[in-house]
Amino acid sequence: MRKLVRPPKPPRCILRAQDAGSTNWQRLRGKDRREIWVKLNEMQHRICAYCERSFAEDDSHIEHLYPRAKYEGLTFEWKNLFGSCNSQYSCGIYKDSTKNPHEVNHELLIKPDQDDPTHYFRYYKNGRISIRPHLSDTEFLEARETIQAFNLNHRTLVSWRQHHLAPLMQMEEEFILWCDLCEEHPEMELDLAAEIRLLLIEQIDTPFQSIKQHYIREHLDLLGLVSDSFIARKSGGSSQKTRKSNQKNRKKTRKKRYNRHYNNRTKLGKGSKKRKPKSNHSSRSHTQSAGSSHQK
Description:
Elements: H1 12-20, H2 30-44, E1 60-64, E2 81-85, H3 91-95, E3 121-123, E4 129-131, H4 137-150, H5 155-169, H6 172-184, H7 189-202, H8 209-220, H9 228-234, H10 240-269, H11 283-292
Antiparallel strand pairs: 1-2, 3-4
Helix pairs in contact: 5-8, 7-10
């Protein structure tokens, strides 16, 4: 689940239904539903609001976070509508179906357009979602209820997260090397920070954005070069044109940067004394120990 920015102006069909005092969702015509989808896709970019997988038009539905059967007065409440995938084992359909053995407390569910899910959840390399420590009692209950209600740790979702995370995991060794080089050459930190920022931006509005950005912050940005405020500023998303431009620029510069860094590493190995390992801190040892203890 990721932070969403809802278009402030509701679709016209929603406003008409509210003015008429209607609670009959089935009376919506096809063009009305398409109008709602235009606004939802503006917010979600055809990605499920709950599990973050991409969906096609025929594999999705307009979801009421607070179900119509129980909260009739919220049927045409714009802030109650999200786009959900059609999985029978997670997300919107599962939440309110008989397949869900858990009695959902809808009042505790995290609203991704109102709450920031990154405050509640952490992610593991194995694809699972967990609850962050040090939450308040209420926040802990909200996080637990949301994971259970949408079945966010269903094995299919876990497998998909692993698949989408794999390309970033292949980069971890390179970034560990880069961080080691920064200890000898602090001026390289500017290039490293720029690379990390571009990686983070590239994940915006892509499937399983949350776990990928979490992994970059925890396992690639070992020196803590990118601040939380940078993530917050970018959380609203970026245009497709901007993301493609970032990807193109990164491809152009990455090879040049790594060549320079590897050349510097080679120079360090020629005629220079081997660096003694630090007894109380090492980026490499810290990362390896973190990985072995299932760090997020």
